[in-house]
Amino acid sequence: MITPDLLLDPQLKYWVLLPISFVMVFIGLLRSNITFLLQAPPKLEGFKAVREKQFLRRAASFKTNNQVLTEEEFEVRKQYFIEKLNSTDFYAKIEDSNQDPMSQLTDPGMNDALMNMAKGNVMNFIPQTVIMAWVNYFFAGFVVMKLPFPLTDGFKSMLQNGIATPDLNVRYVSSISWYFVNLFGLRPVYSLLMGGSEADALMSQQQQQSPLPNIGGPGGPKVDKLFKAEAENIQILSHESVFEGIAERVLESYGV
User: CA-to-CA distance for 115 and 213, rounded, in angstroms?
Assistant: First the structure.
């Protein structure tokens, strides 16, 4: 059975299609600016925290670039890193193993993380709820456009949400489906208006909520485990210096 094509009013693109897209772009830009204004200024890390990270980077750099060292220099640095990584000399903070994990809730840093998470979720939830309610209230059941290319029936539930017409051609798009298409497909517009990095951040805000911070759970790696893992990697590290046989290679390259 062939379903005849619908005759769509040309005014739909001016009174339904473009208003939905314009409102979503405007709300997205507004939310991005409000989120930026609500962000707390970044806190400077202490000396010990910076030293801890830099020492781990030095250990990782030693694993990658030890070929420029002689055998004696490699052994000296290897023993040094193993000794320091197995100690607590470069720890920013020595944690008590008997500390109650729930006591971290009184930490000001944890309170700031929870507050930022709540702000992010509110800025994500409220605009999407308002826009969806607005589309459902004013444009419920509207068929706003017909796609210029054929599609399989698997796209019907995605493109015709809110329309109970099983025989309608899959190329027709409902108003609520157009809202979801804009929700996940406005990145090029945001990139043009704000730039690539800001557009990526805005799209991630629209598509997912902020994650819960780790409150004393096993999710985040501990500093002592990171140090011990680096020590074990350096312990089994093998060395081959670029200076070995350098004279023979130079003479061979010049044909001597």
Answer: 11
pLDDT tens digits, one per residue of 66-104: 888 888 899 999 999 999 999 989 888 776 555 555 555
Would you give the DSSP letter of residue 236? T
- Enumerate residues 6+ apart whose C-beta is below 8 A from 144: 8, 12, 13, 16, 17, 20, 173, 174, 175, 178
Q: Report the alpha-carbon distance of residue 92 to residue 53 in Å, rounded.
A: 9
End-to-end Cα spacing for the chain = 86
Widest pairwise Cα distance in the chain: 87
Band (pLDDT 50/70/90 cuts) for residue 240 is confident
Q: Cα–Cα distances in Å, from 199 out to 32, 62, 92, 171, 175?
A: 9, 37, 35, 29, 24
Residue 190 burial class via C-beta count within 10 angstroms: exposed 0-12, middle 13-18, buried 19 and up: buried
Return d(Cα 241, Cα 66) in angstroms, integer: 8
Distance CA 101, CA 127 (A): 35
Consecutive H or E run containing 146: strand 143-146
Q: How confident is the model at residue 219 (pLDDT cuts 50, 70, 90)?
A: very low
Total residue length of the chain? 256
Q: How big is the chain by its Cα radius of gyration, in Å?
A: 30
Structure-block tokens of residue 185: 């497909």
